[in-house]
Specification:
This protein is of the alpha/beta class. About 25% of the residues lie in helices and about 20% in strands. The strands form 2 sheets. A 7-stranded parallel sheet has the order 7-6-5-10-8-11-9, sandwiched between helices. Strands 1-4-2-3 form a 4-stranded mixed sheet. Strand 2, helix 2 and strand 3 form a beta-alpha-beta unit. Helix 4 runs parallel beside helix 5. The N terminus is likely disordered.
Length: about 270
Amino acid sequence: MSNRSDRQDGDREGGRSGKPLRGRAGRMKNGRGSGRASTGMVRLWGRHAVEAALKNPNRSHRKLWATREGVESLDGELPSDFPVEWAQPSDLARLVARDAPHQGLVLECSPLEDIFIDDVLDGDPSRPVVVLDQVTDPHNVGAIMRSAAAFNACAIVTQDRHAPPESGTLAKSASGALEVLPWVRVVNLARALEEIAEAGYWRIGLDGAAQSTLGEALPDGPVALVLGAEGDGMRHNIVQHCDAIAKLPISEAMESLNVSNAAAIALYAAATRG
């Protein structure tokens, strides 16, 4: 989950269960064409992102715009009184960011509640923390979330002002991970790293110029993996708050990896150590 510390008239056949899906129909209105939701709401799109949000009890849902094929792709049933407006794909395209792959589903819902760093640090050595220093591309952050959830990370930590907001683009890239991975947004990332250390985590910053490899730097106990923005890398103050700096042993033929790819490899290394 994330934070900021930011059908039709009558019955029809549908859903994988084959049971009727009921809902309230509405008239499709012109969209904003920007992916922006109503004030205080978040607009999500794509099957995995929408399905995960619908299943998340911590979400409050305002409305689903959908094609019939989109609803049929969902796992499970919608409540009988769920507000749905049936639409054509071209109508949905006006509700999302330009060229966004909505897959026949656009959901407007509340943002998730704030959570705090001491709520997610469980000290389990098999569950790393991922810390991102000013990684601002929502596609990269979403992809990192997906890998973090896949490798059972306990949380992702970002700075509030220098990270993308909760959005449809990020949720689509996260492929459902936004709803299950705790996302801690903090004002001061250096202070958050201090709290992570106080909880017993060994903080490893990834830098291609480091002398040691990640495999050599990984401890047996809890670990926090710290990654900086592509190009600039980690800021000096963040490097100073790491216990070790390590690199991935990539070929000299390549200068670097995309930050989301580097995160996935680091998470795999943490999950398979020992």
